[in-house]
């Protein structure tokens, strides 16, 4: 087996260093010029939440509503289920969406889907959240602002790599309205959580601390639960999905005070009020003290999200808080 290094890119990036000619940091005219002269999809990196707000105001003030039934319907849906006063309602009508870490994941995914769709959103204004596990690309990328953001050179290269799309537009247009981060060597350190270590592949004479912890944990839990119960939980990925400290606490408490866990079946009840005692017990074991009642109430409230809109849930939460 041989490794052959090749210098090849499926898409060519055409970099425009516009920041070199901008006077007094007045980037708005250049932004308007770019957006007015392209019909292609455009990703605008804002850097921070205040910059998203500033860009949103520019788009709302300087661009007309698009004649799109799809976008009008989506805008109305956001107004009904979130708030009609939210700037995103008007932004969508302009063919522009936003993407950041504060949005509900589903709302971000809907906007990305509309951005990738012909006749959907034309622009996306985003923080670095767009480069964190989001699969999308655009003909144009506008680098608007990096101030106060934690974008390093590696993140910047990831961002501009969204420009262009193979088999659609092989040249990505990158517009730098601000000087990019300095090129620097990045060392990536990937550390595996101990919960993901496969006990079966660990040599028993290992001196690695995490591997030793994994051997001791699985041995202890196997003795407590018995071989069959342990294997069943392991095959379901239970130990990989949960913190080991919490698993040990739950098992120890169930063995020492079995009667207090007789009500576990109530967690399958459709009435969230039946969950109260068990939720308090579980959260107490997990070290939740000061806000335990709030977390229990929130858990019961969140279970109704399949049947109620977000405004209805927020109204219920306010009533619980006032009570």
UniProtKB/TrEMBL annotation:
Protein name from the UniProt record: Helicase C-terminal domain-containing protein
Domain of life: Bacteria
Gene3D superfamilies xref list: P-loop containing nucleotide triphosphate hydrolases
Lineage: Bacteria, Pseudomonadati, Pseudomonadota, Gammaproteobacteria, Candidatus Pseudothioglobaceae
InterPro entries referenced in this protein's UniProt entry, alphabetically: Helicase_C-like, P-loop_NTPase
Domain Helicase C-terminal: start-end pairs: 58-210
Organism: Candidatus Thiodubiliella endoseptemdiera
């Amino acid at each position: 087996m041989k490794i052959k290094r090749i210098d090849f890119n499926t898409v060519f990036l055409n970099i425009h260093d516009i920041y070199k000619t901008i006077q007094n940091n007045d980037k708005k005219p250049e932004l308007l010029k770019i957006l007015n002269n392209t019909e292609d999809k455009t990703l605008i990196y804002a850097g921070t939440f205040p910059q998203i707000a500033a860009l949103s105001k520019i788009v709302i003030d300087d661009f007309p509503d698009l004649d799109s039934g799809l976008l009008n319907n989506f805008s109305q849906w956001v107004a009904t289920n979130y708030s009609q006063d939210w700037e995103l309602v008007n932004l969508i009508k302009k063919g522009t969406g936003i993407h950041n870490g504060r949005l509900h994941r589903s709302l971000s995914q809907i906007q990305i889907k509309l951005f990738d769709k012909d006749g959907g959103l034309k622009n996306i204004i985003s923080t670095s959240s767009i480069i964190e596990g989001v699969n999308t690309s655009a003909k144009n990328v506008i680098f608007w602002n990096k101030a106060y953001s934690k974008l390093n050179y590696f993140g910047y290269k990831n961002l501009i790599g969204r420009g262009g799309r193979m088999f659609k537009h092989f040249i990505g247009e990158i517009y730098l309205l601000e000087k990019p981060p300095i090129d620097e060597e990045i060392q990536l350190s990937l550390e595996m959580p101990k919960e993901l270590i496969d006990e079966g592949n660990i040599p028993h004479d290992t001196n690695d601390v995490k591997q030793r912890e994994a051997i001791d944990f699985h041995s202890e839990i196997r003795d407590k639960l018995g071989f069959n119960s342990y294997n069943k939980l392991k095959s379901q990925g239970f130990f990989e999905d949960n913190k080991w400290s919490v698993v040990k606490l739950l098992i120890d408490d169930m063995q020492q005070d079995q009667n207090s866990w007789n009500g576990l079946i109530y967690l399958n009840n459709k009435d969230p009020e039946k969950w109260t005692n068990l939720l308090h017990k579980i959260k107490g074991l997990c070290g939740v003290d000061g806000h335990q009642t709030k977390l229990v109430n929130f858990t019961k409230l969140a279970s109704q999200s399949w049947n109620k809109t977000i405004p209805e849930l927020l109204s219920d939460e306010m009533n619980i808080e006032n009570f």
